[in-house]
TrEMBL record:
It holds the Pfam family Glyco_hydro38C2. Keywords: Glycosidase, Hydrolase, Metal-binding. The keyword Hydrolase applies. It comes from the Bacteria. Belongs to the glycosyl hydrolase 38 family. The keyword Hydrolase applies. Coiled coil: none annotated. Signal peptide: none annotated. Residues 299-372 form the Glycoside hydrolase family 38 central domain. This is Alpha-mannosidase.
Amino acid sequence: MSNKPKRKAHIISHTHWDREWYLPYEKHHVRLIRLMDVLMDTLENDTEYKSFYLDGQTIILEDYLQVRPEQKERLEKYIREGRIFIGPWYILQDAFLTSGEANIRNMQIGHKDARRYGQISKVGYFPDTFGIVGQAPQLMRQSGIDNALFGRGVKPTGFNNTVADSEYESSFSELIWEGPDGSKVLGILFANWYSNGNEIPTDPEEAKAFWDRKLADAEKYASTPELLFMNGCDHQPIQTDLAEALETARKLYPDTEFVHSNFPQYLESVKGHQENELSVVRGELRSQRTDGWGTLVNTASARVYLKQMNQHGQALLEKVAEPLAAYAHLTGQAYPHHLFTYAWKTLMQNHPHDSICGCSVDEVHREMVTRFAKSRDVAESIIYDSKRAVADAVDTSSFAQYGEDALPFVVFNTTGWERTGTVSVELDVQRIYFRDGIPLDEISRRIQALELGERVVLDPSGKPVPFTLEDLGQRFGYDLPDDRFRQPYMARAVRITLQANAVPAHGLRAYALVSGQAAAQHSDNASVSLITGNNVMENSILRVAAEPNGSLTVTDKRNGREYRDLLVYEDTGDIGNEYMYKQPEGEAPLTTRDLQASIRVVEDTPYRATLEIVHDWEVPASADELLQKEQIEVVYYPERKAQRVKETVPMKIRTLVRLEKDGKGVKVEASFNNQAKDHRVRALFPTDIEASRHRVDSMFEIVTRDNQPAIEWQNPSNAQHQQAFVDVSGETAGLAVANLGLNEYEVLRDGRNTIAVTLLRSVGELGDWGWFPTPEAQCLGEHAVQLEIIPHDGSGEESGAYAEAYQFQIPWTSVQTGIHTGDLSAVHAPFAWSGEGVAFSAWTVNEDSGDHMLRWYNMKQQPASLRLEWPQSVSRAYKTTILEETEGASVEQLSESLELEAGPCEIVTIGIER
């Protein structure tokens, strides 16, 4: 008698719900309403239809109840009964194109929304994510989730086929996934996809053929007799005759137990039968051991404008609005949790993989632009209120000695490190309110007649600060008081540009624009230039020379390392689609290497110098007619034969190259009007550093990746995802290139380890399973991109190069204020921290406790010491999870400081109870 356990077929009903993709949102929305209505009718009328998994995202509940609010009680009933499983996410996000904090907010809000219904599905669900970041196991563990289910990123080999021989292969559909910090979860790979149990036949003959194939396919990879069958697919309607189909299967296969299952039941069964040794997969899952054609990595460069809007929106929320609101909370201002939730939800509605990846029809991405604007408007409103509240608490009374017309203003540094850099601040020199009853023509006369005279900017110690002043003339403005009707006015405005020095991390420094005798007494006429030669800029750290072809030669004066041919532009054809780049066969890239550029100095101040470089370039107008024929016939993109036309169009690129007085990097802003189709534009940065691997910023991790792809890789391109920067380093020198919303790069195998950053990719179709034209994905029109070139000594963490790259992501914040006393000093920060190789990530306020939450992550794979100092006495500091759930007792009862060790690549959240 055999002791072999009876195999069990777990059928889990679900639908993978892309909110928007090949149809606009509302057309998918209508189908969702129909699906949910049928689902609840089926649950009510068929007791054998046990349960349904609602795709891991609670936003589906909002989308449904927006149209069917009368169904809320009914929906809640089935959730509480465990027949509809919801959460843990708010939306199913793309993992590589959304920030770490966005992913944490996604988990926090998903849990919060699910909790209202009495149930949170603790399933790490990534069914169709285009690759998954390496820190996902730690994020799952800190969320109380011990598993991850996913469809991409790992190559299944089958234990009866070949033995897994790399960290990106697995013998079984079950595996152990380990993050860089050592966190481990049970991984479930949808080796036969998340539709392997879809549309199960009720007819015995059809069912026999179906199950013979499906059972064999599942057993090929399963490590236990617990076999998983996903009964659903993209936008899949409910199978209402599932009970009949399973009864047919039971009669056909008496040796198999068929159950209408759910994820908790299935996962528990797998854990209970685990006898085979599972493969251990480590780090990020990017389909490394494949031919490279199906990775979907080039969604990182589809519709680059969306990625730029997302970077700006995320930075405003998590790196400006949240810390400023927390700062204001310390002064007595209420923390606007409700507004943050709304702003984050609106932003995250753009984060699903078919949305932020730019791989949907044009209507979808038009709506995304509106959502980005809506979230940004809320963030800017929070920023405005918060910075004014903090500025009102700053003691600016020392500026009174310079006269009543002294104009104080406050500069905020909301990054996690002390910051020095160039800031522009707009000030109203004079205001006249309409309420004063002065005729409008007289108001205008007085405003325009105002003499600006001699003025100077002073720091809190009274020391003059080099600056430039631009007269903005007369402008209209208005106040919106909380207790009165709107108050319009006319103002005379100026723009002050200066170098803000040593503004403390998450702190502020006050300045004042003064005039008259005070300005004359404190004026500093010393003129210092960073221009040291013909098209050469230089500070104490870097020398930057613009060559005749517009490329840059950058010398790191600290170690003498010279980097040549930086910022050459490259243009190639692209006959792929929104998912994948495909260069025409045999095409040689076009570059600006042999093009003469126009170069001139456009800014020469003591704090910053700027060169303007203009390339008048011509590129092919489009692909030839064969491309559209191949698109309509749905020819697989690697097999396309289209070429580019000989006709050209102008591609004029205007580049501003900036070097600040104390700058550690060279800042670059390029703008161009794209009139070409079916092409890709990149900026090239040869490093000439010998290295077989490079490092790149990802979610809560500096990932190390190989320059050379795996032996299976056939795609000529090896483009990859990045967030803030990519870095090629040797023992004594390194070159990092930071970006704002340019999420695709490649380290070229050209003998120079050139970093290539994609600036624009223009294509004309969605791709995937049909012919979906997307003319707006050609991205015609004006574009502007920003980068920073950061040389260093070979250690990006310890040299501060990575901190510089992170600060590049975050705008300065400033606000005009008055002369007044206050509890905050003119140079102030509410806390200070130190930790070599540690990056600051977030400062928020917990909604339930009112405690302040501070988060860091260790950039290194070795332990790091973290010290936190809080000038004001606090009740206690305690360690929490990313869900802000206390892990045991508090770290320490303390008054002013805390020290702890951050483990390798650990994400550390500290709660501060005041």
